[in-house]
Structure formats: C-alpha cells, structure tokens
Amino acid sequence: MKIAFLPIDNRPVCYTLPQILSNIDGNIEFSIPQRKLLGDLTHPANIDGLFEWLENLPAQDTIILSLDTLIYGGLIPSRRGNETLEELKLRLDKLKEILKTKNAKIFAFSSIMRISNNNYNEEEKEYWAQYGKKIFEYSYNLHKTGCANTDVPQEILTDYLETRKRNFEVNKIYLEWQKEDVFEFLVFTKDDCAQYGLNVKEAQELEALGAYTKTGADEIPLSLLSKSINKTFKIYPIFLEPDSKSLISNYEDVSVEMSVKSQIELAGCEICTDKDDADLILYINNFIEHQGEIVMKINTKSFAGEFKTPNKPYMIADVRFANGADNNFVSELLKNKFDDKYFYGYSAWNTTANTLGSLICGAKMKFCAQKYNQANFKKLQITRFLDDWAYQANVRQMLKKTDENELALLMKEYEQIIFNLFNTNYKVKYSYPWHRLFEVEIWI
Asked: Rounded to whole angstroms, how far apart are CA atoms 135 and 112?
C-alpha cells in the first residue's frame, strides 16, 4: 500500500511519529516531503516546494493532507498570517487542480482557528501577549450569551475577527470541494477549545452545512492514517474511573467518554459493548474531578488501585494528566510484563485527543499489518514511555533550559527501566527541535 503524508509542521509528533507508525507494517510504502520544506515555530512552510512535491508524487493509494500547511504554511501561520482571502484563493485554485489529477483517495483536514486562554504569543499574533485572555473571554461570552463587552482595542479586535472570518471562508470552500468528491474524507479540527467560543460556534455552523468536525489537532493526521487502512477491529473501552467519564478534559469541549468514542470512530474502528466479543480492550486511566497538568502545577488524584494486564489484546490511554503520564499509574503498570502477543500500546501524549488518536493508530497498524515488524513496534512504545513518562512527567520538571547534555544524563535511569521492560537496548539521542522544553525529539 502506498501512502503519501503531508504533516502540519516539522515537530517530532507531526513528522517522525507518522513514519515510526507506518514502519510497523512492512507492506506500507510511505512518502513524506523533506523536513526542510515544513514550517517550525517561527517560519512557515515552503509552500511552493510542497506544491511541487505534491504535484510530482508518483501514483499513490492514499494521500493524507494538512490543508493548513499548503494554504497558510502551517497551523501556526494560519493564525498569524496576513494574506487576504483573495491571495489564498489563488493557492486554493492551484491545489484543487492538482488534486483532480491524483488517482488516489484524499484524506484531508483543516483547522478551525483556535482561541488560547492565555497571554502567550509564541504561537499567536503579537497582541496575544497583552490581550489573549481578554479575547478568549470575549469569544466565550459572545457565544454563550450572544453579547459581550471588552476593553480590547477596536483595531486589535477587528484584526482578530477578520482573520477568523477569512479562515472560516476558506473552510467553507473546502466543504464545497467535499460535495464535489475532491476528498475521500474531510475533517475540520477544533484545537485547544472550551465549552463555548467562536471556534465552537464556527464548528456548529460548519456541521449545519454538512461538515464533520472533531476536537483535536496534532493527532488528526494519525487518525486519518488509521482510517486509510481499509480494515477494522472492535474496541471495548474500560474507564479506570467509570463514574468520572463524563468530565471534560483540559483543552477540549467534550467529555472523556465522547472523546474516546469519536477517536475510535474517526480511526475507522468499531466500539464494542461486549468485552468477550472485542478484538482489543482500551483501558483509559481517566481523572477524578478535573484533569491534572504537571508542568502547569495543576494536581489531581492519581491512580490508587492495582492494574493487571489481561490475557487478551489491550492498549492503554493514560489521560489523568494532560502533557504527561500519571506516575502512580506507570509505577503500577511497570509491575507487569508486556507480552507482544497482547500488548498493543501505551500513550500519555499531550491532550486526551492526542493520546487516543496516536494510540489507536499504533494499535491498528499492528493489528492490521500484512508484514508486522515487531522491532519497530517496540521502538514506538519505547519512544512513548521515554517521552510521555520519563520526560514529560519527570525530567522536564528538573530542567530550566534546553540543555541536551543535561537531558541525556537525567534520562539514563529511565532508559534502563524501559529497556528492561521491553527486553532490548538502544543508544538514544535527544534534541529540542523547536528550542523549547515543551517537546523533545527522541532518536532510537
């Protein structure tokens, strides 16, 4: 099977993780553009270079596209860029003509512009440093009540609303393409959202026009990679805190239970209500009262029970904390042995949606593989434990700056624990591709 994949940007979870996942099945021929063509924190993608890559692709069975990357230069530039709608329409026309020439199934996704509830402008326009929280409150109240007052300067509010309107109009164009069968499947993503907001309102308006929307962002291309595998299996979810599955995760607008169901469905899998009839069990280490977040020093009640791995295929979504594992749960988990016959993955990456989408993708790659590569599946799991548990939940809290030598030294004790768990050994290298502590690249 030949799959071409255009990521959101060049972060490890966007660029290297899909390659690791595809390598689980030796029958997949995976094409991805050169990393230098993709955007980073401060630079947009080389749009002309990516159009050339897409146009010159050899015949593919499936093409997975980040539309934000091709039209704006990436997810961050979609919020920062100042191109007019007329300028963007020139790229849209060119993209449509190219896609019409491709005899492949096109799985595409586009973001609904997010509204961050903070005063950090690292990924937003400059004025977010002063007015981010106020714009979020304005958006929240306007959607919730139909009216809102704010002391955000009118020129800033106007710029923000015009950028939103521009992106919304682009998304409506994609929806027209969907009706013309340009796409095999199209999804609009809600990144970092709350219960109310102009982004949620736009999602509702798109849904009324026939669109499919999904809470999440960075995991969506992985979910589409799952969906492109034209096989399915039945998943039985088990919540370790069943009385709390209706709670809403940080950065999301739906319950954990709904997030689980929608991620399973988006991946092209089935939700099973009978444990004995399921192909895989999905354990969810969900939170009580509220989701914690270690780096933000938001605590929550950690896992306090026992956990025994079953003699049946299973995978584990650890979402008690956002942006990192639950140390208590991992300590209990490490008492078990992971039999490759039954173990289909662990993840605690970033948001609940991020965790679920990437986890299910890895499990589906293994379950449906025509040429299963056990070594590459192990590399995936080692990477997740090193990143989600060792780094995010522990070592990151010890660091003040992006010192790769210090990081490598602090990770050593965790490496040995994880290598013993998987009965293997690797030389590991670490880097900070975006020169910040938020994400680390792990080379095995």
From this structure: 16
